[in-house]
Every structure is written in C-alpha cells, then in structure tokens.
C-alpha cells in the first residue's frame, strides 16, 4: 500500500464482526506497511450509532478526520451536483476526505460510492 486509505462504515462493521477476510488482510497489510488508515468523523459517528461498541481494537492505528468548513463545502457541493439528499452525507464525507488526502477508499457500499465518482474522479475505490 502506498496511498493513504480511507475506510467507510461498512469496513468498520466488517472488522467488528470479524467476518470478512479481506478486511482482516487489509488491516494487517496496513499495519505491516505503516499505511495510515483514515476514518472521517461522520463515519465513526455512524458506526457508533449502530449500538454498543467495545472499541475498534486498534484505534491508535486510525487517524480521525474532522469535517471542517472547507470539507463541509465540498461535501455539500457534491451532494448538490449529484442531486442527492442528506442521507448520503456520510458517503460524501468519505469521498471528499479521500479526495483531499489523495487516498483510496475501501468500502462495503461500492454502488453508492461509485455514484459519487463523477464528482471525485481521482478517488479509487476498492470493495471489501
């Protein structure tokens, strides 16, 4: 892995459930190569909203990315350009964060993320 990696909520859920070998391999590869894993703050909030959590397990390996004013403008403009509602705000935050970092995205929701690629064409997507 050379590029930074942004994770979406689906990856966090798969990690929590320990059911996806690709996620286990991704996280192990990131650990071995020193690749920084980025999680947008809205992704973390969405994951926590799913119920009681016992932690990610290695939160020190994650860089939490805040949604600041410039990023919120990018997110809002992307949703407007795609004529999508606020129910897509977390996905848009993943794509906007990846674009701002020059990162790739690992996602459990490839269809929704692909829909946003017209606004974020440089972001490469990988399905878990």
Topology (SSEs and partners):
Blueprint (H helix, E strand, L loop, with lengths): L4 E3 L1 H9 L3 H13 L3 E4 H9 L12 E4 L3 H14 L6 H13 L2 E4 L2 H6 L9 E3 L1
Parallel strand pairs: 1-2, 1-4, 2-3, 4-5
Helix pairs in contact: 1-3, 4-5
What's the number of helices?
Answer: 6
Order of strands in the sheet with most strands: 3-2-1-4-5
Order of helices and strands: EHHEHEHHEHE
Main sheet?
A: 5 strands, parallel
Description:
It is a single chain. By secondary structure, the protein is of the alpha/beta class. It has one domain (5-127): 5'-nuclease (Rossmann fold, 3-Layer(aba) Sandwich), CATH 3.40.50. The protein is 50% helix and 14% strand. It contains six helices and five strands. Strands 3-2-1-4-5 form a five-stranded parallel β-sheet. The longest helix is centred in the middle third of the chain and has 14 residues, at 69-82. The mean pLDDT is 90.
Produce a short descriptive summary.
The protein has about 130 residues and is of the alpha/beta class. It has helices at about 10-15, 20-35, 40-50, 70-80, 90-100, 110-115; strands at about 5, 35-40, 60-65, 105, 125.
List keywords for this structure.
14% strand, alpha/beta, Rossmann fold, 128 residues
């Amino acid at each position: 892995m050379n590029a930074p990696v942004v994770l979406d909520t689906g990856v966090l859920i798969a990690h929590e459930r320990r059911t996806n070998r690709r996620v286990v391999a991704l996280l192990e590869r990131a650990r071995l190569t020193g690749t920084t894993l980025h999680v947008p703050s809205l992704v973390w909030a969405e994951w926590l909203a799913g119920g009681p959590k016992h932690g990610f397990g290695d939160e020190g390996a994650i860089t939490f990315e805040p949604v600041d004013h410039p990023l919120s403008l990018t997110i809002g403009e992307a949703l407007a350009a795609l004529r999508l509602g606020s129910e897509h705000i977390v996905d848009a935050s993943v794509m906007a964060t990846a674009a701002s970092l020059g990162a790739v995205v690992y996602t459990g929701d490839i269809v929704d993320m692909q829909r946003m690629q017209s606004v974020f064409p440089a972001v490469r997507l990988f399905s878990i």
